[in-house]
Amino acid sequence: xxxxxxxxxxxxxxxxxxxxxxxxxxxxxxxxxxxxxxxxxxxxxxxxxxxxxxxxxxxxxxxxxxxxxxxxxxxxxxxxxxxxxxxxxxxxxxxxxxxxxxxxxxxxxxxxxxxxxxxxxxxxxxxxxxxxxxxxxxxxxxxxxxxxxxxxxxxxxxxxxxxxxxxxxxxxxxxxxxxxxxxxxxxxxxxxxxxxxxxxxxxxxx
Length: 206
What we know:
Elements: H1 2-43, E1 58-59, E2 64-65, E3 72-73, E4 76-77, E5 81-82, E6 90-96, H2 101-113, E7 119-126, H3 130-140, E8 146-150, H4 154-158, E9 166-170, E10 175-181, H5 186-205
Parallel strand pairs: 6-7, 7-8
Antiparallel strand pairs: 1-10, 2-5, 3-4, 6-9, 9-10
């Protein structure tokens, strides 16, 4: 009996040893495969700006965002905005948040963008507290003509936002024509974004 028990015990231990690596490695293999797939879809060859958007060349979604509470430009309250405010003029819609470090990095370029004639620069303040948004724009400057408070993040979801910052160009008919994912850098701003914006502005005149 003792000999039989010992043999069975050895057999069980050997089986466990043979199966153990498979059980441990399987989740790792699955995770690695999913991570690789996600990375490929996210970068599409290393260029995150090429992530396809289902909203390109389609009307901007319906929305109506209230203003950021207490946000002013001098003595004038900065208004929120809705889809109706996109009609009639090329609009650049920038999604930002005070807690977003890349938003702070791209902010000087937005101030440059605000000087471009023929457009309106609008901001969607994403999942932020009013006091933090006011402090952010108060310290860096407010380049936006209107700022809508998307405190729950619902509007950003409807716009297909992956994360902040993101910047959209909407033509005068309210159609989304271009989407830039991530923070603008001097290179991407001058070499990529501005040429795309100019094409849309030229098309809006015709």
